[in-house]
């Protein structure tokens, strides 16, 4: 019997035990519909396999009436199971619980702890309650709960952020005084704990079919740091309109070695451009594809492929839609061609051959609503600038009334979910919502964003966006170790700030972006003219990727040679930058200096200067773009100022000690003197409560 056969037997036995034990604890997911038609999901249950072999299963759900979260663990051990919550994945900053069933008494135990530099330390206040637990010859099962907010400085308040959930399996029960976390197996998984997640199993309906869309043997050479590859595919033969109910990635390499950074499948409007030859699309279907967004290599007609129907980024499992919504495909008015775009990121200079893509799940059993995906945020451009040496620096992208007033139906669109996207410097991203001069509750907030784990954020409560509303994608970045500015761009060493929004009912809009106007961006840094190019030329270079011949008389003496050692891949990006083609002629004190070199020499170490730049870009003018599926030029771009509104204020913390302490520092310090401090705060809080009774 092979090792693979043995592992399958173990997994099958484990799952049979798990189903047997928890069969009486199933909850039926349902939902309410409010007066606006928005769905509010309730009684949902999440189930995750924490490891790759099915040795550790975690199930959880929310009890809103109790403000509590319930957990069930099924672990292949008769020893202990460890579970931890962390913002950064480190045990030293984690909120930890140890779980076991006593071998002698059969008593189920839950021990509330916190991470330290060594083994976890037991919390003075125990905030986890064991409900049930038992073990058999191979497995341990425990059910327990805690408050979402415990007011314990050693516990992490649970929120909508992406958490690093730590897990550990020990062979033996914990020994008093030696709470060793490092069992026989351990790991970490990024999860959003307070939202539902629809899966392939929850969408299993009769008649569901699969459509696999992949590239064919794309070669990523050692010299390629970043490659965008596009492939045209044709819709399979269908009997009529269908609904896409979900999609998942098909990755050709192992997760930790795959060079695929993100993938998008776009609808193509094959009749968008006059004079196009419709037969060309079938020729492109038979081809292997080509480099995306290349003036020389990419056919112009491919610019019509702009409406996303599937989006995948690092760490994602794909997306499955709730049962009342599906993305339309086929039918008399449906598109016939799609474009698969894959971004390859190859920082280690490896040569590989890839055939990744998507598996699309679709059904002829149409759902209530046609849904769609639109992209919002900062238009990808070098006018997005993030200074070096920053602990936190923000950029915002606006989708405003020029889009929403024209394209949204009278009753608005309802947001189902969103995927937030930036690159390596991204730290927090939020999707904000403004109506009639007032900021409403944020739609999505992830204050622990990790570009390696970009899972979809499923909304428990759908959000209605009305005509005239603003959507603001707000990103913050950390560049403390970088020595030069980071610009917006397609490489993972450059940056983005985007939201991929799944919504219904579907409208003919694929994107809603903004950027700093080119002239304002340049004049922000006291530059007013360049050799060889007037300002209109420069604007066209940024906005339309227009090529111009550079006058060598004014560039041969302009240099941006790296001052940071031998040439790196970042140096290559800088040397090829559009900003490096622009040689300053006015003002005279900067002449013969490239604009890129000028930006490198600015006093980014001065926090007052950097803050002024940040605020000027946020609160200043923004050029907005509304990309419409049927006609990409039907709504002209518009220059607006950042809207004035009353900002949303997060409700005050319910826990008094949060006003005086930084929980993150408490957990990382692990000092026992905090017991007295916490007790004092508790007594103060109790006194306040007594006073107002």
Automatic annotation (TrEMBL):
Domain named DOMON: residues: 54-170
Family per record: Belongs to the copper type II ascorbate-dependent monooxygenase family.
GO cellular component terms attached to this protein's record: extracellular space; secretory granule membrane
Molecular function terms, GO-annotated: copper ion binding; dopamine beta-monooxygenase activity
A Pfam family matched in the record: Cu2_monooxygen
Gene name in the database record: Dyak\GE19798
Gene source species: Drosophila yakuba
PANTHER family according to UniProt: DOPAMINE BETA HYDROXYLASE RELATED, MOXD1 HOMOLOG 1
GO biological process: dopamine catabolic process; norepinephrine biosynthetic process; octopamine biosynthetic process
UniProt cross-references to Gene3D superfamilies, sorted A to Z: 2.60.120.230, Copper type II, ascorbate-dependent monooxygenase, N-terminal domain
Protein name: DOMON domain-containing protein
Cofactor annotation: Cu(2+)
InterPro entries recorded: Cu2_ascorb_mOase-like_C, Cu2_ascorb_mOase_CS-1, Cu2_ascorb_mOase_N, Cu2_ascorb_mOase_N_sf, Cu2_monoox_C, DBH-like, DOH_DOMON, DOMON_domain
Residues spanning the signal sequence: 1-18
Keywords associated with the record: Copper, Disulfide bond, Glycoprotein, Metal-binding, Monooxygenase, Oxidoreductase, Signal
Keyword Plastid recorded: no
């Amino acid at each position: 019997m092979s090792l693979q056969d043995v592992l399958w037997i173990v997994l099958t036995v484990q799952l049979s035990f798990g189903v047997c034990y928890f069969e009486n604890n199933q909850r039926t997911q349902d939902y309410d519909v409010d007066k606006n038609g928005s769905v509010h999901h309730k009684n949902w249950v999440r189930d995750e396999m924490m490891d790759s072999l099915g040795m550790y299963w975690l199930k959880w759900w929310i009890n809103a009436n109790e403000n509590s979260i319930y957990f069930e663990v099924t672990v292949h051990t008769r020893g202990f199971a460890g579970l931890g919550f962390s913002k950064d994945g480190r045990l030293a900053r984690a909120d930890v619980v140890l779980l076991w069933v006593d071998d002698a008494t059969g008593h189920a135990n839950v021990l509330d702890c916190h991470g330290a530099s060594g083994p976890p330390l037991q919390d003075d206040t125990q905030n986890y309650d064991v409900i049930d637990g038992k073990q058999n010859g191979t497995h341990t099962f425990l059910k327990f709960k805690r408050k979402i907010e415990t007011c314990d400085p050693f516990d992490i308040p649970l929120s909508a952020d992406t958490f690093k959930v730590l897990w550990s399996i020990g062979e033996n029960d914990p020994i008093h005084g030696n709470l060793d976390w490092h069992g026989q197996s351990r790991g970490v998984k990024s999860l959003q704990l307070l939202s539902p997640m629809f899966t392939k199993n929850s969408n299993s309906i009769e008649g569901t079919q699969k459509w696999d869309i992949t590239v064919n043997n794309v070669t990523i050479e050692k010299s390629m740091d970043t490659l965008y590859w596009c492939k045209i595919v044709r819709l399979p033969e269908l009997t009529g309109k269908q609904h896409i109910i979900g999609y998942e990635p098909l990755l050709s390499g192992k997760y930790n070695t795959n060079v695929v950074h993100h993938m998008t499948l776009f609808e193509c409007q094959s009749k968008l451009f006059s004079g196009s030859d419709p037969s060309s699309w079938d020729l492109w279907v038979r081809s292997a594809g080509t480099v995306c967004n290349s003036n020389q290599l990419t056919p112009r007609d491919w610019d019509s492929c702009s409406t996303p129907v599937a989006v995948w980024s690092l760490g994602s499992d794909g997306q499955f839609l709730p049962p009342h919504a599906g993305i339309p495909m086929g039918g008399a008015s449906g598109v016939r061609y799609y474009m698969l775009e894959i971004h390859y990121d190859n920082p280690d200079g490896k040569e590989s051959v890839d055939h990744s893509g998507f598996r699309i799940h679709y059904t002829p059993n149409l759902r209530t609503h046609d849904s769609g995906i639109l992209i919002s945020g900062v238009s990808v451009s070098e006018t997005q600038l993030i200074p070096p040496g920053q602990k936190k620096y923000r950029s915002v992208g606006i989708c405003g009334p020029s889009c929403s007033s024209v394209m949204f139906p009278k009753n608005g669109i309802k947001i189902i979910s969103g995927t937030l996207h930036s690159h390596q410097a991204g730290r927090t991203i939020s999707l904000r919502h403004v109506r009639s001069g007032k900021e409403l509750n944020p739609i999505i907030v992830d204050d622990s964003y990790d570009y390696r784990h970009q899972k979809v954020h499923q909304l428990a409560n759908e959000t209605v966006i009305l005509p005239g509303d603003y959507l603001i994608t707000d990103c913050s970045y950390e560049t403390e170790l970088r020595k030069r500015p980071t610009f917006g761009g397609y490489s993972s060493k450059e940056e983005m700030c985007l939201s991929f929004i799944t919504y219904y009912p579907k409208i003919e809009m694929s994107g809603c972006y903004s950027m700093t106007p080119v002239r304002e961006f340049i004049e922000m840094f006291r530059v007013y003219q360049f050799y060889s190019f007037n300002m209109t030329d420069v604007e066209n270079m940024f906005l339309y990727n227009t090529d111009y011949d550079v006058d060598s008389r004014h560039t041969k003496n302009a240099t941006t040679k790296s001052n940071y050692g031998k040439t790196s891949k970042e140096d290559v990006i800088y040397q090829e930058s559009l900003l490096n083609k622009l040689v300053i002629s006015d003002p005279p004190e900067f002449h013969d200096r490239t604009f890129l070199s000028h930006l490198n020499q600015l006093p980014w170490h001065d926090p007052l200067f950097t803050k002024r730049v940040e605020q000027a870009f946020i609160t200043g003018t923004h050029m907005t773009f509304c990309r419409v599926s049927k006609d990409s030029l039907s709504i002209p771009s518009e220059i607006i100022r950042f809207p004035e509104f009353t900002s949303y204020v997060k409700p005050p913390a319910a826990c008094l000690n949060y006003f005086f302490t930084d929980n993150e520092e408490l957990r990382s310090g692990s000092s026992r003197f905090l017991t007295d401090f916490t007790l004092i705060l508790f007594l103060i809080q109790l006194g306040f409560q007594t006073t107002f009774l």
